[in-house]
Amino acid sequence: MAVSNGLPSSEPPLVNQAEQLDQQERQKYVKGKKLGSGQYADVFSAHLVSDPSKLVAIKKIKVGPEVAEWGISHDSLREIKFLQELSHPNIIRLHSVFSTKSQNLNLVLEHLPQGDLLKLIQDVENIHYGPSDIKAWMAMLSRAVWFCHENFVLHRDIKPNNLLIAANGEIKLADFGLARSFADPYAHMTYNTITKWYRPPELYYQASFYSGAVDVWSVGCVFAELVQRKVFLPAMPDTDINMIGIISSTIGTPTEDNWPGVSKLRGYVPVEKKDVTPVKRKDQWEAEFRAVGPVGADLLMKMFALDPRKRLTARQILEHEWWTTDPKPSRLEDLPRKGGGLETMGEDLKRRGGELPSLGRGDKVARKLDFSTMK
Amino acid sequence: MTVSLEAHGKLPIFEAILAADLPAHEPHPPRSPIHVSHLVLDVRLPTFVSQLTISPPTMSRLAQSRAAPAAARPGDQDGELLQHSLSQLRFTDAQPEPDICPVCKSSRYLNKSMQFLVNPECYHKMCESCVDRIFSHGPNKCPIAGCNRTLRKHRFRKQTFEDIAVEREVDIRKRVAAIFNRREDEFEDLMDYNNYLNDVEDITFNLVNRIDVEENEKKLAAYAEQNSKSISANASLASQETQDYSALQAAEREQARLRRDTARREEEEERRARAEGRQDIINRLASGTASAEQIAQESRVTLKKRMDKKAAAERQRQLHAAAAAKDATNGSSGFLIKGLKTKKEVGPEKPFDAFGGLSFAKHDYCVLQDHYEWDWLNEVRGDVQIVAGGYDVQEFHQRALCDAFAGLGVFVGEEAAARDEAAMGPGAVKAAATAGAAGACTGAKDIKMEDPF
Prior knowledge:
A: 375 residues, 5-stranded antiparallel sheet, 12 helices, B: 3-stranded antiparallel sheet, 2% strand, TFIIH/NER complex subunit (chain B), transferase (chain A), EC 2.7.11.2 (chain A), kinase (chain A), TFIIH complex serine/threonine-protein kinase subunit kin28 (chain A)
């Protein structure tokens, strides 16, 4: 790992130097108020010593049970591993990493004061947005996902509350705690990943070999949620079988016809002929998603292809004609925002503790991850 | 004296005041002819003094040399008269300026609410009742002896500055500044802007000091006519700037909301029209009043009409843009401004680039093949378990090639030096050197490790 200054090395001659570097890094920041606290991490507001106007967020990861075994928690390892390499306007920036005395890891992240996309979607009363706003947000999300995939990173947890909003209105993909790089052939990946409502059918069928298509499904879910202002595939309770049920009834039942080879997947549940729901037709998509027009509905439909091989790739999403058809995407400054501009930022932070809610783990949609099945 | 008071109906009040046993001091000294002439002239006195002493600080570099002889020239409009009276009046003029209307001679003492007004045409002071009396029935000559200018009632206003010369100069400056309202950011560099300011100051100075007034007025008018668009644009810009910042933001938000609303309304309208059209077609088909072909033809026609309407709106917009572009050129008005930036119209927005200006399509050192002769790899394609989950061996090809070649031609030392030079934010320690290199580092190193994920 390249984060030598974040982790104490085991070799005696390096200890001092590593600690020095760590110290140097730590002293660059002045930690401020606690913004939020979760089971897994606390988030603090902070600023540079050299320039108090440059704000950052420091995510202090708590020592968890994994640390005893691995020396570092999986989430923080993944987060550091990928965020330090990915530099894109729509992906949250990791400025630095340092540790404090109790071996706590501190990630210095970009300061994003405007909350997340989920808050905008849910505030139906006060926030009104239109097709061009949706297009602007989706463009930024799609670029972020495309950038990850071009660099062979699967995000595996795309959902509205992981899409934070910067002061200028830009969307930033955050929380790489479940990310991983593309797998080598024959290398198993866990299928128990991605928040339930945003998880694609192949993962419910326990496929161990998958690709960027899983993220594309999640992007589709976010797209639909933006249009409808409610979760697109909410199964209550969110058991796997319920989720397969709602996917089947909403989009169509996966069969050998529309998804060759699906029955060979480990977790495939055979469906009786009479219970098969045909795949939703294009006109049905158009009727349900009028707001984005027929072209937008076409894009959405292709993101929700049951067979991951037929689903659009992140690149194909960006090549779709929807981006260039009317209406144009809103300019950043025209996007509706909840915070109400920079001047109310301080107010905002005071009022609502935890402006970076998805950095903690107290998410509304709980991630029930279970690593016990994996060796 | 009594007669003149009687003429204006002020006598009863005067008598009442006299009847009341007032303190012995006399409010008005007995009037002699000299005093009367003094009253007429004293309004002009400051003008003269200021011309000689106050103006020079505002004088521009070029105007100074031209102005010096002009200001001293005797007989220039009122100058002679004033100079003459000044020598007489210096001695008697010790008491404060009495509030007496030079036209009707009524004084503040008799009429507490008396107000003096001036007209920017000649700046002669007179009381409100005189203005009402003389100018109510339309334009009339100025009643001050020797003035003869035609004045209009609506131009009369209260005096802001005690010194009437200052009043006049401020008025002129206001007028000129409203016309020559170019902004610094319109010029190529500061020198050009300063030269422009200097030229404007020359005109202003000449107008203030009545040097070649006609010629300068002509210049002013010609410039105002030829640059009307940019003048009004700059004026509105200035008024915008004075608005409160938060009010501005609120206005912007409101604008965005309106835009969205309009979009929504249009969409709804469109949808309704479509639905109505469809219903209509169904009805007519059902009733059999028209053949299917006919109806199809008609619906095509309505669609075309809708499109035409849209196209017309688009044309209108383009016309507007063209007119604005024409105005952007710097018209010649005998007042040539050098170094003015050719204004770029904000023009049609750039086409939307979904990729945000990035591309990964180019590989410098490798060419991706569809197929590689390696059974271990190619067996993946045959394994339904692997393929059905969406795993794509092509992505592995790509990644392996990227891992192998991405570092070529990348010199970390040089890039680090360049980065340090650029001195990005001090916190940006872990910034990826290049996006392309990102792939090389992420996956390759820990292939051999047991992957717990």
